[in-house]
Known about the structure:
It comes from Stackebrandtia albiflava. This protein has 612 residues and is of the alpha+beta class.
Amino acid sequence: xxxxxxxxxxxxxxxxxxxxxxxxxxxxxxxxxxxxxxxxxxxxxxxxxxxxxxxxxxxxxxxxxxxxxxxxxxxxxxxxxxxxxxxxxxxxxxxxxxxxxxxxxxxxxxxxxxxxxxxxxxxxxxxxxxxxxxxxxxxxxxxxxxxxxxxxxxxxxxxxxxxxxxxxxxxxxxxxxxxxxxxxxxxxxxxxxxxxxxxxxxxxxxxxxxxxxxxxxxxxxxxxxxxxxxxxxxxxxxxxxxxxxxxxxxxxxxxxxxxxxxxxxxxxxxxxxxxxxxxxxxxxxxxxxxxxxxxxxxxxxxxxxxxxxxxxxxxxxxxxxxxxxxxxxxxxxxxxxxxxxxxxxxxxxxxxxxxxxxxxxxxxxxxxxxxxxxxxxxxxxxxxxxxxxxxxxxxxxxxxxxxxxxxxxxxxxxxxxxxxxxxxxxxxxxxxxxxxxxxxxxxxxxxxxxxxxxxxxxxxxxxxxxxxxxxxxxxxxxxxxxxxxxxxxxxxxxxxxxxxxxxxxxxxxxxxxxxxxxxxxxxxxxxxxxxxxxxxxxxxxxxxxxxxxxxxxxxxxxxxxxxxxxxxxxxxxxxxxxxxxxxxxxxxxxxxxxxxxxxxxxxxxxxxxxxx
Length: 612
């Protein structure tokens, strides 16, 4: 390209497909369009992974309160790491539109599942809800409330025992609500079927709001419909505030009574009457799902009653004492033999039973389950597990089905979940030191960027991704940004200057200007509207600096005024932004105009009309 600027035509709302967002995320294809954002599949070119890129609608991006709230919520959610939550990797702003970079989940939404099947088997609905609540519980422990739990925000991969559920869009609803006009319709219309009453009435929003929404989602999964439906969102909102959610069992006969009662409890209008958070909801749900069925009344072995043989009525002679003695001895021996037999049965079989299975049960449930069998539980030190979720039983002794005393003790080992390590602080370390430290923690190091930095010597770590303090799985690749040494060149500030001056300034720093041109109603033609990288950025020599230069106001089509009176033509052309020259009879009608109608000219251009 040499020293010549590169002209790139950019329309007012050019397509994002193929574009590079923030010099990192290559937009590949659209995934979804919602009421306040568009979601794209993108490639993170630094870490070479697929991500979901959510770009907020400019309708919301123009609100500074929303932009600030969105950035704050994205940073908060990025600290949340849980297998049932869609991870947030990054956030920023592209062409004035806030965006967030999330984990890409190649699956389907719960809405897709319900659209295809209408309602689900109870066991499947409980499996899905259990994982939804696990994700929400992790958020609630961090002080986060989702505020927009609905089937569209529940992502599903796999089937059966391999089914995995992830909750998406934490915090986004809150950011929108914080930036919306309190007197307007707000963003609740699209999801009003799941919104708790306190969110509609301006009440205090706590984790109990998510409990309500999750209860409504569970209601829909088992009945095939939402509790309230109406002609418009306002009518549905009024029902949430004024009515009691109907019993799910009334719409699905045969639904377990305790599940029906739990759904009613979680969807009560008064937040204080609901479980306090998703953890409590989940424990109650697992009690419904995990109660031993038909179990376990302890039945003692039948007691054998040994009766002596019926005595025939006989008249014993007074001298027959020897016969009576023999008979008494016989009875005593029979009784002793019977007692020995019963005791032998008890010692050989009656004291023992088969160990019940506590595997994969929640740790909070196992003592109650064991007690139902007359047994006790002892806990050993928890262990990490890649396959068994945190707080679930990983192992037990005796194993399920093994013989054990009826009043025995089952030793259980609870899972700590997948092994995690905290990323250490690496800033200022040499690359070799950082690699050794990460290897000691079973983490991998990868240099993802080398850049100039005045504050770090060549070879020192500037930053890491994930950052220091983030808890991650063993084997996680930690991306390192490494210093190339002090900055050889800095991008000059040329915004607002003439194009020629800007080109000279950029070239004077040893950098290469690249020019794109764009219409602007406010900036005169030939002046620089914007630049990238920003002023002051340290870069290598011969780095390209993109300059956006104003074309001035966009062209306007010339109206057709032939046949109009001169006065009317003047008004029409002046309102369109043109300077008008009148030739001929000022009181006549226009017979010709130059330029002709339909031709596009800049505002302020001259249009001549001829009148007779």
